[in-house]
Specification:
Helix content of chain A: over 70%
Number of helices of chain A: 14
CATH superfamily of the largest domain in chain B: P-loop containing nucleotide triphosphate hydrolases
Radius of gyration of chain B: 24 Å
Shape of chain A: globular
Distance between the termini of chain B: 44 Å
Strand order of the largest sheet of chain A: 1-2
Strand order of the largest sheet of chain B: 6-7-8-3-9-10
Number of domains of chain B: 2
CATH architecture of the largest domain in chain B: 3-Layer(aba) Sandwich
Structural class of chain A: mainly alpha
Strand content of chain A: under 5%
Largest interface: A-B, 26 and 35 residues
Oligomer: heterodimer
Helix content of chain B: 25-40%
CATH class of the largest domain in chain B: Alpha Beta
Number of strands of chain B: 20
Distance between the termini of chain A: 38 Å
Structural class of chain B: alpha/beta
Shape of chain B: globular
Radius of gyration of chain A: 21 Å
CATH topology of the largest domain in chain B: Rossmann fold
Order of helices and strands of chain A: HHHHHHHEEHHHHHHH
Chain lengths: 341, 494
C-alpha cells in the first residue's frame, strides 16, 4: 500500500502536491474564517467565479504545451466582446420575440469566435512564420487589441447586453449547475479528449518537447503552432463572453489581471511554457486551488482589492521559483533528468 | 618526482548506472606526445573531461606532477597547467584574434578596464611562442578551422600549460593543414610540454605519437609505446575484431534509378550536383565538414530549397518542399544531430518511435489507442534489440547507440523507398554500430535505396557499394566496388 502510494506520487508529483496545497489552504481558511468558508454562499461563489478564467486557462494551456505563451488573449477577448455586445445592442429591440433574440445572441457569439480565430492566426503567423519570440509578439498584439478597443469605445464600457443573455449567465441548470460551469466542463472534456486520445495531442506534446525533431519527423510544426494559438484565442473569447454576462457589459480592460492568474495556474499545475509538459487534470486541480485562495482572501475584509496585485504577483514569483527548482538540479522533487552530453 | 607528468590509475565513471569508464590506466610523460585512441563513444571525451575537471571520477587516482589530485574544478585544472583544446574550440567567433587571445588572462587577472595596448602585447606574446603569424584584428569566426586551432593553442600556452589535450584536432583539416599542425605539436613537445592527442585515425597516430593508449567500450585495452604496435594490432585493439569481410556487397540493384538528381544547386552550399541512386545499393556521400553534404541531404528532405536543378523520383520529376512531402514520397531522413534533430528526449521511447507514423496508427478520425503505440514500439524494440525493459521510459534514459536505434526505427516504421542516413553512427558504441550496419545492409538487400552521409571513412568503406566525394560544394570523385578505400577517398579530398 505504502509502496504503491510512493510509486504513484513519484509519477504524479504535481497532482500530489496540488492536493496537499488544497488541503493546507482549506485547513488554513477553516481555522481563520471557518464559518464563512463552509457556508453555501461561498462555495456557490467559487463555482460561479472560476469558469471565466478557468476556460481561458484551458486555452492558454495549449500554447504552453507546444512551448509558446500568449499574453494577448484577454485583450483580444475584450475586443471580441466589445464587437459582439455592440452587435447585440444594435440588433435587439424591446419588442423582439425570444427566438429572434436567441438568434442575435448566436450571431454575436459567432462574431466573437471569428475574432478569436483571426487573433490566433495573427499570433501564430508572427511566431511560426516570422519567428518573433512568442512573448514579444503576443505582448505587442495585446497592445494592439487594447488600443483598438480603447479607440472604439473611448475607454467606456459598452452596454446594451440583452437581458436574456445576462440571464443565461446566471441560470442554474437543474437547480445546481451554473451555465458557465457547464461550458467550462464541456471545454475541459473537449481539451482532455484532444490531448489524450488524438494524434493531434500526441504531436502537440512532441512538438513542445523538441520542435526541431518534430519538424524532422514530418510534422507540420508551423500549422501546429498556428492551430494552438487559434484554439487558445477562441477559447479565451468564449471565456470573455462569459465575463460579459456577469458584468452585463464589455470594456477594453475587463479581466486584465487574468493574464497573470492564468500563467500562475498553469505553472502551478506543472504546465510550463518550456513545452511538452503537464497534465490537464493538474490544471483542473490548480484552477480550484487558486479559486480557493481568491475566495479566501476575499473573506478578509482588511485585505481590500488594492492588495490583489501584490498577492497574485507574490504568489507567481514563489511558484515560479519552486517550479524552476523542481525541474532544475537544485532540489530533486521532479524526475526530469538533465541529459549528459 | 616521477618521470610521468600525469598518471591515471583505475579510473571508473558511470552515468546513471551505465558505466562509461571502467578501470582505465595510463601515463603521460613530459616532452612526449601521447595518443588517446578509440572509436566514437568509447569514453575518450569522458576521460578528457575528468582530467580537465568538468566531470568528477567515481573511483581511481589521478596523480599530476607526483601529487595525487582528489577532486579538481576546471579553474584548478587550468592553474595546474592542464589545457584542453576542444573540438568546438571554445572561441568567441564575433571577437578578434587579439581579444580571443587576451580575454581569458585579462579576466583572470581581475582587470575591469580594457587596455588595448596591454591586450595587444599579450596577444603578440602568445603568437610568438609558436612563431605563428596572423592578423591580430581579424574576426575569429572568419578564420579557417586550422587557424582557429592554432589561435586556441596559443591561448593555451598563455597559461603556462604543462599538458595540452587536443580533442580530435584533425577532423576538419586538409592534409596540408594537418602537416602544419603536427609541426607545431612537435615544436611544443620539444619545449617540454606533454601533449595528449586524441584521434581515431591510424596513420596520424603512428606519425605523431610516442605513446599510445587505446580504449574500447570504456576500458583501455592497450597502453604503451607506439613503436611496439603494428597498424594491424592497432586496428584490432580499436575495434575488437579483425576487419576483414563484412563489407557490404550489393546483391539486387534495380535497373532503373529510384532517385535521380540532376544539376542541383543551392547558393553558397553546393553546385551542379548530379547522381543516381538505385534500389538495393548503398551510396556513400562523403567530404569534409562544410563540403555541402548535409545541405544536399536536407534538399532531398525538403528542408532546403535548391534554386536550380531537378530531382526525379521513380521517373517522376518532383519538387520536395517539406519533410511532410518527403514522407509522402517515401523518403526518410535520419539527421546528423540526434539530440537536437532526432529525438524528443523528455518523452517516452514509444512516442519517439511512432512519431512519424501516427497517421498509420490512428483511425480515420485521428483517434489513437495508447496500446497500439506501445505494441508498434515493442516490435522495433525487439527487432533492433533496443536496451530497455520499458518503452514508456524517457528516451533520455538510453545510451547514444540505443537512441540512434530509436531514430532509425522512427523512419523504418514508414514504408520507404529512399533512406538517407546522415552520420548514422556518430557517438555510437561499437556493438550498436555493428547492429546498425548489419540492419542497413539487410534493408538494402531487401530493396531499399540507402544514402549514407559520413565523414567516418571506415564506415563509408565498409558499407557503401558506391561512393561520391564532395569538396567545396561540388562532386569531385566517384568510385565503386574494389576502388573504394580510405586512401583513395583521402587522395581526392585533400
Amino acid at each position: 500500500m505504502q509502496a504503491k502510494f510512493k510509486e504513484y506520487s513519484n509519477k504524479n508529483r504535481y497532482s500530489v502536491m496540488l492536493f496537499g496545497l488544497m488541503i493546507l489552504l482549506l485547513m488554513f481558511f477553516s481555522v481563520t474564517k471557518g464559518e464563512t468558508l463552509w457556508s453555501l454562499g461561498t462555495w456557490n461563489g467559487i463555482f460561479i467565479q472560476f469558469p471565466e478564467y478557468g476556460i481561458m486557462t484551458l486555452g492558454v494551456m495549449f500554447c504552453f504545451i507546444i512551448g509558446n505563451i500568449d499574453m494577448s488573449f484577454v485583450a483580444l477577448g475584450d475586443f471580441a466582446c466589445i464587437m459582439a455586445v455592440r452587435y447585440m445592442a444594435g440588433h435587439v429591440t424591446e419588442d423582439m420575440a425570444t427566438g429572434q433574440v436567441v438568434g442575435v445572441i448566436l450571431i454575436a457569439l459567432l462574431i466573437a469566435i471569428a475574432i478569436g480565430v483571426i487573433g490566433g492566426i495573427i499570433n501564430g503567423v508572427l511566431v511560426a512564420y516570422l519567428n518573433i519570440p512568442p512573448v514579444m509578439a503576443t505582448i505587442a498584439m495585446q497592445l494592439v487589441w487594447l488600443g483598438l478597443s480603447t479607440a472604439l469605445t473611448k475607454g467606456y464600457a459598452v452596454t446594451g447586453v440583452p437581458a436574456l443573455y445576462t440571464e443565461i449567465g446566471h441560470t442554474m441548470l437543474f437547480g445546481f449547475l451554473p451555465v458557465p460551469l457547464l461550458i467550462f466542463l464541456i471545454i475541459f472534456l473537449f481539451s482532455l479528449f484532444l490531448l489524450k486520445f488524438t494524434t493531434y495531442g500526441k504531436r502537440l506534446y512532441m512538438t513542445g518537447t523538441n520542435l526541431k525533431a518534430a519538424k524532422f519527423s514530418a510534422i507540420n510544426t508551423k500549422a501546429m503552432i498556428i492551430s494552438t494559438f487559434i484554439l487558445c484565442d477562441v477559447i479565451a473569447c468564449i471565456g470573455c463572453m462569459i465575463m460579459v454576462s456577469t458584468m452585463n457589459s464589455a470594456k477594453a480592460d475587463y479581466g486584465t489581471s487574468y493574464v497573470m492568474r492564468v500563467i500562475l495556474i498553469l505553472v502551478l499545475a506543472g504546465v510550463l511554457p518550456d513545452g511538452g509538459m503537464g497534465k490537464i487534470f493538474n490544471v483542473l486541480l490548480s484552477i480550484v486551488a487558486i479559486q480557493i485562495i481568491a475566495s479566501g482572501v476575499n473573506m478578509f475584509s482588511q485585505l481590500n482589492s488594492y492588495y490583489a496585485s501584490l498577492i497574485w504577483g507574490g504568489l507567481l514569483i514563489i511558484v515560479l521559483i519552486l517550479s524552476t527548482k523542481m525541474n532544475g538540479t537544485g532540489i530533486k522533487l521532479f524526475k526530469l533528468k538533465k541529459q549528459k552530453m | 618526482m616521477s618521470e610521468y607528468l600525469l598518471e591515471m590509475t583505475e579510473i571508473c565513471k558511470s552515468f546513471a548506472g551505465v558505466p562509461a569508464l571502467e578501470h582505465v590506466n595510463f601515463k603521460v610523460r613530459s616532452g612526449k606526445v601521447m595518443c588517446l585512441a578509440g572509436e566514437n563513444g568509447c569514453g575518450k571525451s569522458t576521460l578528457v573531461k575528468i582530467i580537465s575537471g568538468v566531470y568528477s571520477k567515481d573511483e581511481g587516482e589521478v596523480v599530476f606532477e607526483g601529487k595525487p589530485i582528489a577532486k579538481i574544478t576546471p579553474a584548478e585544472a587550468t592553474k595546474l597547467g592542464i589545457q584542453v583544446i576542444y573540438q568546438d574550440l571554445s572561441i568567441f567567433p564575433n571577437l578578434t584574434v587579439m581579444e580571443n587571445l587576451a580575454i581569458n588572462s585579462e579576466i583572470t587577472a581581475g582587470k575591469k578596464l580594457v587596455n588595448r595596448r596591454q591586450w595587444e602585447a599579450t596577444a603578440k606574446e602568445a603568437l610568438s611562442k609558436i612563431g605563428y603569424h596572423i592578423d591580430l584584428h581579424a574576426k575569429m569566426g572568419e578564420l579557417s578551422v586550422a587557424d582557429k586551432q592554432l589561435v586556441a593553442i596559443c591561448r593555451a600556452l598563455l597559461f603556462d600549460a604543462k599538458l595540452i589535450i587536443m580533442d580530435e584536432p584533425t577532423t576538419a583539416l586538409t592534409k596540408k593543414e594537418v602537416d602544419a599542425l603536427f609541426k607545431t605539436v612537435c615544436q611544443l613537445r620539444d619545449s617540454g610540454i606533454a601533449i595528449m592527442f586524441i584521434s581515431h585515425k591510424t596513420e596520424e597516430i603512428f606519425e605523431i605519437s610516442d605513446d599510445v593508449c587505446i580504449m574500447r567500450n570504456g576500458k583501455n585495452v592497450y597502453a604503451g609505446p607506439t613503436s611496439e604496435l603494428t597498424p594491424k594490432d592497432f586496428t584490432y585493439y580499436m575495434t575488437g575484431r579483425e576487419l576483414t569481410d563484412d563489407h557490404f556487397v550489393a546483391k539486387n540493384i534495380s535497373k532503373e534509378p529510384v532517385l535521380k538528381v540532376e544539376h542541383l544547386s543551392l547558393k553558397n552550399k553546393f553546385e551542379d550536383v548530379s547522381f543516381e541512386l538505385r534500389k538495393g545499393e548503398i551510396l556513400g556521400i562523403t567530404g569534409l565538414l562544410g563540403s555541402g553534404r548535409t545541405e544536399l541531404a536536407l534538399s532531398l528532405f525538403g528542408l532546403e530549397r535548391p534554386k536550380k536543378g531537378t530531382i526525379t523520383l521513380n521517373g517522376k520529376q518532383v519538387k520536395i518542399t517539406s519533410p511532410i512531402m518527403a514522407q509522402k514520397l517515401k523518403i526518410g531522413y535520419v539527421p546528423e544531430d540526434r539530440l537536437t534533430e532526432g529525438l524528443c528526449l523528455q518523452q517516452s521511447i514509444a512516442d519517439n518511435i511512432t512519431l512519424s507514423s501516427l497517421k498509420r496508427l490512428s483511425n480515420s478520425f485521428g483517434l489513437l489507442k495508447h496500446q497500439d503505440i506501445i505494441d508498434d514500439a515493442s516490435i522495433w524494440k525487439e527487432k533492433f534489440s533496443i536496451a530497455t525493459n520499458d518503452v514508456n521510459k524517457f528516451a533520455s534514459t538510453l545510451s547514444g547507440g540505443n537512441q540512434q536505434k530509436i531514430v532509425l526505427s522512427k523512419w523504418l516504421s514508414n514504408d520507404l523507398d529512399v533512406l538517407i542516413l546522415n552520420g548514422p553512427t556518430v557517438g555510437v558504441d561499437v556493438g550498436a554500430k555493428q547492429d546498425i550496419h548489419a540492419l542497413v545492409h539487410q534493408l538494402a538487400n531487401d530493396g531499399l535505396a540507402v544514402i549514407i552521409i559520413s565523414d567516418d571513412l571506415s564506415e563509408v568503406v565498409i558499407n557503401c557499394s558506391r561512393v561520391v566525394v564532395m569538396k567545396e560544394g561540388k562532386i569531385v570523385g566517384e568510385m565503386t566496388g574494389d576502388k573504394i578505400s580510405e586512401d583513395n577517398i583521402l587522395e581526392i579530398i585533400r
